[in-house]
Design goal:
about 240 residues; mainly alpha; Four Helix Bundle (Hemerythrin (Met), subunit A); 9 helices; globular
Length: about 240
């Protein structure tokens, strides 16, 4: 859980019971580690930065085709994302800048992962352009060159959908409206990406990316509908900024 959620006082997206249960379990399991980190003098911002660096490393591994290594690094990054908020609260140092830094680096971390995945499939396409034997080998497995271009494009669409989920909430809260609704928030996206990474090279990652696209945009639409209903009920109307 990130520090913006700590400041808001409730889980992102108004999570249902299973999210609350998982959150409590994770916090309980990690609490001894949090106390140890505090004893070492580490601060929440240190873990936020470490989590981002681990995401960058995961993106590099995705880009080079080491999907299982990338999934392990992304898992470690996700643990850091839980620990930083927990450490901030336990140390009594929950700050506005810490929340801002955490959210900003989370967005960058998401971007690096999707770019890394897209890079891998684009690189395969480039390699086929200079190596006809690769084209023939892939065709024997039913993989046309356009397949790799499509998967790379889906990865970028997943990135756009991910950003839209975050932007719709941030924009609503900037207008003074609570917007903690939606099915597919960052934890779900990250878990799906990690599981697909552990499956290695093959059809699982493209399928996971397609699911990410569909449900990320669906969540963004849910939030848009929520804000529309709230503004309509309050007579806020609509305006352009």
């Amino acid at each position: 859980m990130s520090r913006p959620e700590a400041l808001a006082g409730s889980p992102e997206g108004g999570a249902s019971g299973y999210k609350e249960a998982l959150k409590r379990f994770a916090h309980g399991a990690l609490d001894p580690l949090v106390r140890a980190l505090l004893a070492l003098g580490l601060q929440a911002d240190h873990l936020t930065a470490l989590g981002f660096l681990l995401s960058v490393a995961a993106a590099f591994q995705f880009a080079t085709g080491h999907f299982r290594v990338a999934a392990s690094l992304a898992t470690a990054s996700g643990v850091c994302d839980i620990l930083d908020g927990q450490l901030a609260r336990r140390s009594g140092k929950v700050t506005r800048f810490g929340a801002f830094l955490d959210s900003t680096l989370d967005r960058l971390a998401d971007a690096t992962l999707f770019v890394g995945i897209s890079w891998y499939y684009t690189a395969q396409l480039v390699d086929m352009a200079v190596n006809p034997n690769r084209v023939l080998a892939n065709l024997q497995h039913g993989l046309e060159p356009v397949t790799f271009a499509v998967i790379a494009s889906i990865s970028m669409l997943a990135l756009v959908g991910s950003f839209m989920v975050s932007y719709t909430r941030a924009r609503a809260e900037g207008l003074g409206l609570e917007c903690k609704v939606g099915w597919f928030e960052r934890p779900e996206r990250l878990v799906l990406l990690i599981l697909a990474g552990y499956a290695g090279l093959g059809p699982v990652m493209p399928a996971a990316l397609l699911v990410l696209v569909v449900f990320s945009f669906a969540t963004a639409i849910q939030r848009m509908a929520h804000v529309w209903n709230r503004t309509r009920a309050s007579g806020g109307g609509s305006s352009e900024v």
